[in-house]
Amino acid sequence: MNDGLSIVGLSKNFGGLQVARDLTLTLPRGSRTALIGPNGAGKTTFANLLTGVLKPTSGKIVLNGQDIGSLSESARVRAGVAKTFQITNLFRDLTVRENLRLPILEREGRTHQFFRRADGWSDIEAEIARLMQDLNIQPLADKPVRGLAYGQQRLVELALTLAVKPKVLILDEPAAGVPSTESHFIVEAIKRLPQDLSVLIIEHDMQLVFEVADRIIVLVNGAILMEGTPDEVVANKQVRELYLGAGHV
Ligand SMILES: Nc1ncnc2c1ncn2[C@@H]1O[C@H](COP(=O)(O)OP(=O)(O)OP(=O)(O)O)[C@@H](O)[C@H]1O
Question: CA nearest 156: which of 87, 240, 220, 64?
Answer without folding.
Answer: 87
